[in-house]
């Protein structure tokens, strides 16, 4: 179910799911004879979304599916062959198209498993292989990882606010089109929601599907009581009644009346849903009415433009809500509609094959200057498995005996790593020479990882308002090398 999440969704092949400039650069590299120069790229973001303290990595299963199927069909090549430049000439000559036809993906890919907690500047994915191929896949990797990581993170925040309550994802109708909805449902489940209303996501990914009924169901009957009675006939043991079509508390009374009739027939009402008005007040009143009537087990579901801050506020107001139905705000990542993940070249094999040239992209802002090297992320954890600090280092250079982690934005902030401090290395092999090294974790496993990793973070990093910045630094020799490269490049620029 999870092994080929993307294949066949729109087109038989997604090899053209890219920006034109990836193909024009591919042609240029090929023309220059640079296509096979070994290159290393990193995919990372510069700031966690939602002004939060962390992100939950997601989308790798789709990336793996895309890369496994990265071949250009005759149709793809015919289309590329049909493209014309300004003067009417073919953009891509037949011998380049013949090269693409024969090309098989042969890169090494290392990545954080889905559900891993990631911080700013840490590679979520590292690609190493022929320059042409490693460049060509940039756009697809970014579109797959940016969105799913964004939504998984939003879901983790909603889970944080909801605590042990049930969270349902109701977003498909408001999502950014069919794939926006489908991949949001998957990422939201990975990040911590319990079920989705999206039936296609249920079929494709094995996510539990759940739901209630709409206002139109109530409006289609003579009155509310008749509507509830009819729904209970259809689903005697799985009914949740939407009670706010006319008057919410009257609706609750009607639900109780039908619940009594259900009980007389040996069935129990599952819940009621509130979809408007003051959800704190109405849920408290509804709870009281239900309890007084002998229905303390009937759950109260709430929906209506909910998100993590509203959930937190409603809980503070003493709302009696057991289940949160969340659509628009979750699947569109309403308060931050994109994650700014980037894909940067960090190393190129020297032309004479004598070693690596580590590459850097400068920026006026130090925070936007890239990190050179063939990076790995090492996460130091305490005895309880709580992350304490992450260190980026260049795997192509020997590590010194005494490790020091330097804050890339303030080199005066450094911490020495205690010898034998326990750590995990976050980037794991996914492809070797273009072949998947083994089965990826299942969606359930990734979801469990996300849950475990988010909970292992200090609450100061998890809080919504002004979270503490988790320490991520560069290993000192990498930091020194990067500084040297920045100085050299700036000098070169002025010369
Ligand atoms: N107690 C509360 N505290 C803070 N926000 C609340 C509370 N109760 C509801 N809200 C939120 O206030 C927003 C507006 O809800 P309200 O039901 O008043 O308007 P509405 O969405 O226009 O209703 P309707 O669906 O009937 O048109 C929603 O996002 C809802 O989740
Ligand atoms: O509010 P969301 O978080 O997106 O959750 C999904 C919403 O979708 C449904 O109603 P719909 O939006 O179709 O109609 P309504 O808003 O008029 O109730 C449902 O009743 C929720 O209100
Ligand atoms: O099942 C529900 O209650 C539901 C599904 C989608 C959108 N809003 C509500």
UniProtKB/TrEMBL annotation:
<dbReference type="Pfam" id="PF17767">
    <property type="entry name" value="NAPRTase_N"/>
</dbReference>
<dbReference type="GO" id="GO:0005829">
    <property type="term" value="C:cytosol"/>
</dbReference>
<dbReference type="InterPro" id="IPR041525">
    <property type="entry name" value="N/Namide_PRibTrfase"/>
</dbReference>
<feature type="domain" description="Nicotinate phosphoribosyltransferase C-terminal">
    <location>
        <begin position="376"/>
        <end position="480"/>
    </location>
</feature>
<comment type="function">
    <text>Catalyzes the first step in the biosynthesis of NAD from nicotinic acid, the ATP-dependent synthesis of beta-nicotinate D-ribonucleotide from nicotinate and 5-phospho-D-ribose 1-phosphate.</text>
</comment>
<comment type="pathway">
    <text>Cofactor biosynthesis; NAD(+) biosynthesis; nicotinate D-ribonucleotide from nicotinate: step 1/1.</text>
</comment>
<keyword id="KW-0808">Transferase</keyword>
<dbReference type="InterPro" id="IPR013785">
    <property type="entry name" value="Aldolase_TIM"/>
</dbReference>
<dbReference type="InterPro" id="IPR040727">
    <property type="entry name" value="NAPRTase_N"/>
</dbReference>
<dbReference type="InterPro" id="IPR041619">
    <property type="entry name" value="NAPRTase_C"/>
</dbReference>
<dbReference type="GO" id="GO:0004516">
    <property type="term" value="F:nicotinate phosphoribosyltransferase activity"/>
</dbReference>
<comment type="similarity">
    <text>Belongs to the NAPRTase family.</text>
</comment>
<keyword id="KW-0662">Pyridine nucleotide biosynthesis</keyword>
<feature type="domain" description="Nicotinate/nicotinamide phosphoribosyltransferase">
    <location>
        <begin position="168"/>
        <end position="348"/>
    </location>
</feature>
<feature type="domain" description="Nicotinate phosphoribosyltransferase N-terminal">
    <location>
        <begin position="16"/>
        <end position="146"/>
    </location>
</feature>
<dbReference type="InterPro" id="IPR006405">
    <property type="entry name" value="Nic_PRibTrfase_pncB"/>
</dbReference>
<keyword id="KW-0436">Ligase</keyword>
<protein>
    <recommendedName>
        <fullName>Nicotinate phosphoribosyltransferase</fullName>
        <ecNumber>6.3.4.21</ecNumber>
    </recommendedName>
</protein>
<dbReference type="GO" id="GO:0034355">
    <property type="term" value="P:NAD+ biosynthetic process via the salvage pathway"/>
</dbReference>
<keyword id="KW-0328">Glycosyltransferase</keyword>
<keyword id="KW-0597">Phosphoprotein</keyword>
<dbReference type="InterPro" id="IPR036068">
    <property type="entry name" value="Nicotinate_pribotase-like_C"/>
</dbReference>
<dbReference type="GO" id="GO:0047280">
    <property type="term" value="F:nicotinamide phosphoribosyltransferase activity"/>
</dbReference>
<dbReference type="Pfam" id="PF17956">
    <property type="entry name" value="NAPRTase_C"/>
</dbReference>
<dbReference type="InterPro" id="IPR007229">
    <property type="entry name" value="Nic_PRibTrfase-Fam"/>
</dbReference>
<dbReference type="Pfam" id="PF04095">
    <property type="entry name" value="NAPRTase"/>
</dbReference>
């Amino acid at each position: 179910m999870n092994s080929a999440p993307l294949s066949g969704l729109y087109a038989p092949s997604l090899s053209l799911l890219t920006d034109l400039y990836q193909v024009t650069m591919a042609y240029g590299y090929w023309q220059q004879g640079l296509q096979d120069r070994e290159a290393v790229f990193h995919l990372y973001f510069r700031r966690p979304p939602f002004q939060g303290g962390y992100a939950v990595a997601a989308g790798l299963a789709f990336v793996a599916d895309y890369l496994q199927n990265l071949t250009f069909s005759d149709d793809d090549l015919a289309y590329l062959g049909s493209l014309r430049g300004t003067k009417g000439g073919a953009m891509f000559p037949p011998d380049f198209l013949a090269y693409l036809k024969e090309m098989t993906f042969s890169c090494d890919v290392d990545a954080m498993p889905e559900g891993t907690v990631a911080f700013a500047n840490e590679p979520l994915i590292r690609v190493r292989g022929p320059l042409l191929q490693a460049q060509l896949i940039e756009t697809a990797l970014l579109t797959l990882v940016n969105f799913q990581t964004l939504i998984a993170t939003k879901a983790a925040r909603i889970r944080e606010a909801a605590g042990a309550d049930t969270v349902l994802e109701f977003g498909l109708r408001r999502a950014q089109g069919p794939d926006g909805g489908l991949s949001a449902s998957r990422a939201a489940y990975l990040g911590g929601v319990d079920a989705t209303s999206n039936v296609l996501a249920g079929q494709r990914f094995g996510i539990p599907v759940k739901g209630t009924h709409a206002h139109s169901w109530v409006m289609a009957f003579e009155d509310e009581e008749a509507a509830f009675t009819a729904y209970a006939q259809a689903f005697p043991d799985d009914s949740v009644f939407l009670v706010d079509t006319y008057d919410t508390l009257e609706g609750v009374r009607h639900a109780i009346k039908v619940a009594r009739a259900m009980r007389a027939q040996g069935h129990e009402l599952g819940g009621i849903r509130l979809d408007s008005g003051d959800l704190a007040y109405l849920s408290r009143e509804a709870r009281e009415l239900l309890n007084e009537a002998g229905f303390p087990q009937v759950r109260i579901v709430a929906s209506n433009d909910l998100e993590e801050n509203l959930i937190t506020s409603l809980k503070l107001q003493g709302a009696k809500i057991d289940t949160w139905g969340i659509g628009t705000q979750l699947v569109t990542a309403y308060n931050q509609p994109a994650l700014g993940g980037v894909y940067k070249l960090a190393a190129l094999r020297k032309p004479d094959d004598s070693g690596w040239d580590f590459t850097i992209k400068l920026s006026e802002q130090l925070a936007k200057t890239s990190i050179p090297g063939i990076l790995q992320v090492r996460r130091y954890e305490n005895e309880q498995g709580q992350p304490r600090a992450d260190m980026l280092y260049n795997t192509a250079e020997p590590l010194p005996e005494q490790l020091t982690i330097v804050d890339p934005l303030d080199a005066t902030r450094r911490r020495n790593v205690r010898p034998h401090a326990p750590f995990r290395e976050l980037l794991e092999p996914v492809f070797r020479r273009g072949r998947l090294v083994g089965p990826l974790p299942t969606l359930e496993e990734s979801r469990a990882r996300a849950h475990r990793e988010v909970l292992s973070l200090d609450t100061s990093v998890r809080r919504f308002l002004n979270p503490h910045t988790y320490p991520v630094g560069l290993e000192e020799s990498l930091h020194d090398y990067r500084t040297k490269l920045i100085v050299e490049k700036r000098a070169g620029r002025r010369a």
